[in-house]
Amino acid sequence: MSSKKVYVINNSEMMTKEAQNSLLKTLEEPPEFVTIILVSNNENTILATIKSRCTKIVFTEENKNEFTEEEKLTYETLEKIFGNVENYKSIDLLGKLDILYKGKEEIFQNLDFINIILWQKAKNNYKYLDYIEYVEDTKRRLKANSNFDMSIDNLILKIWE
User: Fold this and answer.
1) What is the pLDDT of residue 70?
2) pTM score of the predicted model
3) CA 130, 19, 140, 136 torsion-angle sign
């Protein structure tokens, strides 16, 4: 029914080398309308040739009791905003997400948390997989020492589009 297809391979670390090599052929030239998600608890068992063709997104389970009050407020705010991101206008979104500009030290943790929220939303609407890619692109830009504010602006505008 959709113009895009998403395939999720859970426990991909359990694939045999033969299965991984078969998958590699698809990963080398995937159709434009296909997104393949490999879920693994141990990336060391996945062939390097497969990993080189994938975007890695790390999800960690944090102990909420270890968060400071400020971190809890940030995460609650991000959850509220990204839980309803489709209902915001760009200027409203820019205003609401000022917390991303303030938290330069925690930006990667905040972006990972945003990906968790978007991943949950992607279960019902695949367009949120594109949003996750925007977040990952922002992380790459920040690691390459791109301008912080411009990188966050770019993320917010891409999500709003």
Assistant:
1) 66
2) 0.56
3) positive
